[in-house]
Amino acid sequence: MTAKQMLLDYVAQLTEEEAITKLPLLTDAGPPPPLTSEQIASIHAALASLEAGNRVPHDDVKRRFGLH
Q1: What confidence score (pLDDT) does residue 30 get?
Q2: pTM for the whole thing?
Q3: Least CB-packed of 1, 8, 41, 68 within 10 Å?
């Protein structure tokens, strides 16, 4: 098996989340850019919502991001 085929097989088995984390390594793009203040605020708001007991069903999240 060639190195290229080994890489193709490896990538084919990655989940989307794993692929996102590996992509900078494969493209030599370096680390992702730092989060903007708006992104950080959005994360804090989402965490506060979770702590308040507000939940979104997994299927709704997948549908929102086109992952189903």
Answers
A1: 67
A2: 0.46
A3: 1
